[in-house]
């Protein structure tokens, strides 16, 4: 007979605890939003796509909705728009990528602002929809080219559904801003041919590099809102990383000198070690490429990750520390190891590390 499942209240199975948790600092997020809005000179359309850059859609959206500096929330796909709308936060939701024709009426009924780039899309909008004209000024990813955008925007205005227009800067986080200035010039030329509307262009790099832009009603800083900026823009604003990632020790054991640790035997213990196994791995988004480079913080001390990072766990040298199963260690956070360092160990970027955090990790807000 299979073992019975322990029951909680009213016969329900008790919840199982997560082995890792991402803690979002509400104060850090709100401070970042205030600083970015102040530099841009306009309210923010905060991107919360990809589970709010891994921080937790529900957690971030609720915190951001309390900020007077946030006009609305931007998402990448209709499912995200539906999820934010369901929170009933009283803030506009803007979809940034094209929906299918079947999704348009549902999004319009939810009040989601819909991106439009063609005359066919403009004609197909329900009369109660609100559209944001997508202008391609050089990213060559989505949107109408400037000459086409004017015609689409005018038709949307004629139909009474045009609320906003936007473009996306391709190189605003680079040192050389010449192409960014050219993109903005092209965008301004389109806006000059349309009735007044809510325009937005700057991502985080644009806000930090360019500050307030004439004619813009919103700004869309993404990763910068969560506390990360290109190295050459450090110090422009006092932004703070918002997330602390913690993982739980699941096992503690001794490894003798000369024994190897983890897959492939890549690490050989140079002496007797006390080793903790931690319940986080590459299936949770911790980069496997950080093998033999990664460190974590244990009881305030930076300690190396030993051997190959596994799918669900990794091992840490805790020699000399009184560490026990159930204890939380810090994988990254503002106090010591930051996401930029982890990304460098994994030969990747902060975006990929943060958005790669998996569903097995709990998300929670902290002060």
From TrEMBL:
UniProt entry keywords in alphabetical sequence: Isomerase, Pyridoxal phosphate
Record-linked InterPro entries: Ala_racemase (IPR000821), Ala_racemase/Decarboxylase_C (IPR009006), Ala_racemase_C (IPR011079), Ala_racemase_N (IPR001608), PLP-binding_barrel (IPR029066)
CDD domains the UniProt entry points to: PLPDE_III_AR (cd00430)
Active site: 49, 263
Coiled coil segments of this chain: none
UniProt GO molecular function: alanine racemase activity
Modified residues (N6-(pyridoxal phosphate)lysine): 49
UniProt entry tagged with the keyword Cell inner membrane: no
Residue ranges annotated for the Alanine racemase C-terminal domain, each copy included: 242-366
Gene3D superfamilies: Alanine racemase (3.20.20.10), Lyase, Ornithine Decarboxylase, Chain A, domain 1 (2.40.37.10)
Known EC number: 5.1.1.1
Pathway this chain belongs to: Amino-acid biosynthesis; D-alanine biosynthesis; D-alanine from L-alanine: step 1/1
Protein family according to the UniProt entry: Belongs to the alanine racemase family.
Protein's name according to its UniProt entry: Alanine racemase
Organism: Deinococcus rufus
Name of encoding gene: alr
């Amino acid at each position: 007979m299979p073992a019975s499942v322990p029951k909680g209240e009213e016969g329900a199975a008790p919840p199982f605890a997560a082995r890792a948790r991402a803690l979002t600092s509400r104060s850090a997020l709100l401070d970042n939003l205030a600083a970015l809005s102040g530099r841009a000179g306009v309210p923010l359309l905060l991107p919360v796509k990809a589970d709010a850059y891994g921080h937790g859609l529900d957690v971030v959206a609720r915190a951001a909705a309390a900020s007077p500096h946030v006009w609305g929330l931007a998402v990448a796909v209709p499912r995200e728009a539906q999820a934010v709308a369901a929170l009933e936060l009283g803030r506009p939701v803007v979809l940034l990528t094209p929906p299918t024709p079947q999704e348009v009426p549902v999004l319009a009924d939810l009040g989601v602002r819909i991106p439009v780039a063609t005359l066919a899309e403009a004609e197909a909008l329900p009369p109660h929809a609100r559209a944001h004209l997508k202008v391609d000024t050089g990213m060559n990813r989505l949107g109408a080219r400037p000459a086409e955008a004017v015609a689409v925007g005018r038709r949307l205005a004629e139909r009474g559904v045009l609320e906003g227009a936007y473009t996306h800067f391709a190189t605003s986080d680079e040192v050389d801003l010449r192409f960014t200035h050219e993109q903005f010039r092209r965008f301004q030329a389109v806006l000059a041919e349309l009735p007044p509307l809510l325009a937005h262009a700057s991502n985080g790099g644009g806000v930090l590099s360019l500050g307030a832009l004439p004619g813009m009603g919103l700004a869309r800083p993404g990763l910068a809102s969560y506390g990360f900026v290109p190295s050459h823009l450090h110090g422009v604003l006092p932004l703070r990383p918002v997330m602390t990632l913690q993982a739980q020790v699941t096992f503690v054991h001794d490894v003798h000198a000369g024994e190897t640790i983890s897959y492939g035997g890549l690490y050989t213990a140079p002496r007797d070690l006390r080793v903790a196994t931690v319940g986080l791995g590459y299936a949770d988004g911790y980069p496997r490429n950080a093998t033999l480079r990664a460190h974590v913080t244990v009881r305030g001390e930076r300690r190396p990750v030993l051997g190959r990072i596994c799918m669900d766990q990794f091992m840490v040298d805790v020699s000399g520390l009184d560490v026990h199963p159930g204890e939380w260690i810090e994988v990254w956070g503002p106090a010591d190891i930051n996401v930029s360092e982890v990304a460098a160990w994994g030969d990747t970027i902060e975006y990929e590390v943060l958005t790669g955090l998996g569903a097995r990790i709990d998300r929670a807000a902290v002060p």
